[in-house]
């Protein structure tokens, strides 16, 4: 059995979709609206974003994007930092990892 889709409630659908497309290579479905967006990865996952007035995920909730190397984690960290995102630098935990608050109100982990 394979997980094929996940839905996130977000406060800003276009900003969240653009973030996921720009930094993680997800592709938006043509004709998306401000209240809903479907994004696709290369492995068949569909990530949908739905507009919500307030988003209150538990503190430990996050989605993750695995990277092929620690160098790639470092590159994404620097790119996000250069673009104005505030986050702690990568550190050794369960992997070489860092977390970033995404536009729309959810957290993303980047790890290798």
TrEMBL record:
PROSITE patterns, A to Z: VOC
A Pfam family that the UniProt record links to this protein: Glyoxalase
VOC domain sequence ranges: 2-112
Stored Gene3D superfamilies: 2,3-Dihydroxybiphenyl 1,2-Dioxygenase, domain 1 (3.10.180.10)
SUPFAM superfamilies: Glyoxalase/Bleomycin resistance protein/Dihydroxybiphenyl dioxygenase (SSF54593)
InterPro entries linked to this entry: Fosfomycin_Res_Enzymes, Glyas_Bleomycin-R_OHBP_Dase, Glyas_Fos-R_dOase_dom, VOC_core
Identification of the protein by name: Glyoxalase
